[in-house]
Every structure is written in structure tokens, then in C-alpha cells.
Amino acid sequence: MANRVTALVPARHGHFKMESGYHSASWFELASLFDHPDELRPYIAALGRRLKAHGLDAVCGPMTGGAKLARLLAATLHVECFETERSETPGAIGLFTVKYEVPEAQRERARGRSVAIVDDAISAGSAVRGTYADLIACGARPVALGALIVFGDEAAQFAVERGLALESIETIPLEMWHPTECPLCKGGVAFDAVSAG
């Protein structure tokens, strides 16, 4: 296996505002990733094997790419599957303002579970951070983060700070900037439009 999941994902270069609030000069169109089931199958199996070693009995993925991955991994590992739903607070500013919450109907089932939080890709980690916070609020026990692709080093730092294992198929560098430090903003470069995942 060549471990090149990013070969399945179109990349763009420009000036992008990420969900986390960070800015980047690179954007990956993850919405098309699951259009390649045959190519993804060995990567999903490999990620499942790595996550299984952490004693999980459930997986949880944020909508939408993470939820798709969670369903596939749950079927492979024969464990419970949860999903978190995205919500925005109008007018919220700063970093990591988007919330991810386990639906009411799943909250009691999540209590006490050893959970791997999974997403198709993690960069700054807005979705997995929100999912982690709400799983803790549900009484679940997150034990690992898993992703097909990890961009940059924010996910590794978050995992270390929370005592989580981090498993991925591919890790590639990605430069991200706080909005006040973005060289593209300072240079007057307009934001590029991005498609919703």
C-alpha cells in the first residue's frame, strides 16, 4: 500500500479560511474522498487495525466525512458507532467556534464507552476538538484519534495534551496561521471560495 490517500483528493492553492478560524494557503477537496470506495478499502482496514489496539468499543465521527468513516470502521471492527452534528453560533469570533454534539438519542448510549474519534482528515482539528468535548460531556471515554490524513502537527499536539493515541494513514505538512499572523492577509490577498464538506 502506497499510503497516498491524498492522491484521491484534489488540492488547491490560494488563501483559505478554515473552519477552525486558522488561515492556510492550501485546501483539499475532501468531499470527493468517499467517491473512491475500492481505493479507500485497504486504508480503512489498516486504520481499523491500528485503532483496535487501543481497546475501543465505539467510534464517533463528526458530520460528514468523519461520520462516513465512523460507519465504515464500526462495521469493520464490530463496535458501536456515534456521530456528532455541527452547529454554529451566529456572530461567534475567534478560533474553534463551531460546536459538534452527539444527538440526544445517542447520548446515553455513549456513556462509559471507550471511543475512538475519527475523521476523514484532521488539520487544526475543529471537528475532533468539538466532538471530544461533547463526548466527555456525555460521560464517554475518548481513547484515540484516527484519520485517513493528518495535515500538520496540531492533531498530534491535541492528542498529547489529552492523553489520546493518534493513528493515521498519511501525515503531510500543512502551514496554518492565526488570522492576525497570516502573511496572505497582510499582503491583501483575497480569500478563495471553498466547498462545504
Explain what you see.
The protein is of the alpha/beta class. The protein contains six helices and nine strands; from the N terminus they run ββαβαββαβαβαββα. The strands form two sheets. Strands 5-4-3-6-7-8 form a six-stranded mixed sheet, sandwiched between helices. A three-stranded antiparallel sheet has the order 1-2-9. α2 (65-77) links the parallel β3 and β4 (80-87). α1 (37-52) crosses α2 (65-77). The chain is globular and about 50 Å long.
The whole-number mean of residue pLDDT values reads: 94
- Listing every helix as H and every strand as E from the N terminus to the C terminus, the arrangement reads EEHEHEEHEHEHEEH
Shape verdict = globular
List low-pLDDT spans: none
Query: Main β-sheet, in a few words?
Result: 6 strands, mixed
Lateral strand order in the biggest sheet: 5-4-3-6-7-8
Q: Helix amount, in percent?
A: 25-40%
Number of helices: 6
Structural Rg: 16 Å
Total strands: 9
Q: Structural class of the helix and strand makeup?
A: alpha/beta
Distance between the termini: 26 Å
Note the topology.
Layout: E1 11-17, E2 23-28, H1 37-52, E3 58-62, H2 65-77, E4 80-87, E5 99-101, H3 104-110, E6 114-122, H4 126-138, E7 141-151, H5 154-162, E8 165-172, E9 176-177, H6 183-186
